[in-house]
Amino acid sequence: MLTDLLNSIYKRIAQLGQAIQGLKTSLDGLNQNIEEKIINLNEKLKSFSEEIDMTQTKHIDVLKEIGESTKDELKRIQEGLGLDALNTLIKKLNEFEKLSGEILNQDTVNLLLSEAISSVKNLKQKPSKKL
């Protein structure tokens, strides 16, 4: 009877060992599966990151190209409308105004009027010659 009891205990220990071994095999498989999933996820994240970098670079390049094209078109429109010529004309008119203001100050006007009056008086005093 003791032998039967020992045999029974031994069988149960053996079954428990087999169950533990089965559990270890399952855990190893689960760990390997998890590791594969993590590696796969890391590869996808890396690929996604590279795709984002490439797309971001393309978007920046496209935006730069749009900006350059827009700038060129605005210059062409500005030249077509004559805005540069108009700005130059306004600048020259401002300079002319300044120059006119300097020339036509009160002293200069008085001097010119004085000379004109003097010339008219001289013309009146000289006898006019008839041809």
Q: Based on CA inertia axes, which overall geometry fits?
A: rod-shaped
Question: Would you list the SSEs in sequence order as H and E?
Answer: HHH
End-to-end Cα distance, whole Å, is: 173 Å
- Low-pLDDT segments, ≥5 res: none
Strand-residue proportion: under 5%
Number of strands: 0
Q: What is the overall pLDDT average? A: 86
Report helical residue fraction: over 70%
Number of helices: 3
Structural class: mainly alpha
For the report, how would you describe the main beta sheet? none
Structural Rg = 52 Å
Structure description:
- The protein is 92% helix and 0% strand.
- It has 131 residues and is an all-alpha fold.
- The chain is rod-shaped.
- 0% of the residues are buried.
What topology does this entry show?
Blueprint: H1 2-81, H2 83-103, H3 106-125
Q: Could you give a quick summary of the protein structure above?
A:
The protein is mainly α. Helices cover 92% and strands 0% of the residues. The termini are far apart.
How would you describe this structure in keywords?
single chain; mainly alpha; 0% strand; rod-shaped
